[in-house]
Amino acid sequence: MGSQDVGRAGEEFARSYVERLGYAILGCNMRFGRKEVDILAVDGDTLVVIEVKTRLTWDYGMPEEQISAAKLRSLKQIASVVSAACGGATVRVDVISIRAFGFGACGLRDANLSHIKNVIS
């Protein structure tokens, strides 16, 4: 089980979380050219581009701290493309940060989630 497995488990955990919040999931791991959106959802009348970061260790800081300036620019570009494709709809970019204390056959263990809304103005 590698880091991609941990990432997929984190995305599943995040999907369950946003569905419990009442968001409608439009798609996961969606490609827009060479860029990818982990989760595209609808919250009320707002489209939400969601970046998910999952970590099992604090060695490199908190998960959300691993989002580079280049990734933020990419997310902003994706939000613009999504807005244009949906007739100028309001789009927000959120980050879901997951810190788990283990990973196994049953997925993430003792996972803590932080949801940061509207990370890009």
Helical fraction equals 25-40%
Instruction: Give the strand content.
Output: 35-45%
CATH topology: Trna Endonuclease, Chain: A, domain 1
Rg over C-alpha atoms, rounded to the nearest angstrom: 14 Å
CATH architecture: 3-Layer(aba) Sandwich
Query: What is the H/E string?
Result: HEEEHEEEE
Task: List low-confidence stretches.
Answer: none
Largest sheet: 5 strands, mixed
Care to describe what's here?
The chain is α+β, with helices and mostly antiparallel strands. Helix content is 29%, strand content 38%. It has a five-stranded mixed beta sheet with strand order 1-2-3-4-7, sandwiched between helices. A hairpin with a 2-residue loop joins β2 and β3.
Key words describing this protein structure:
globular, alpha+beta, two-stranded antiparallel ribbon, 121 residues, 7 strands, 29% helix
Short description:
By secondary structure, the protein is an alpha+beta fold. It is built from two helices and seven strands, in the order αβββαββββ. A hairpin with a 2-residue loop joins β1 (24-32) and β2 (35-43).
List the helices and strands and how they pair.
Layout: H1 3-20, E1 24-32, E2 35-43, E3 46-55, H2 69-85, E4 91-99, E5 103-104, E6 107-108, E7 112-116
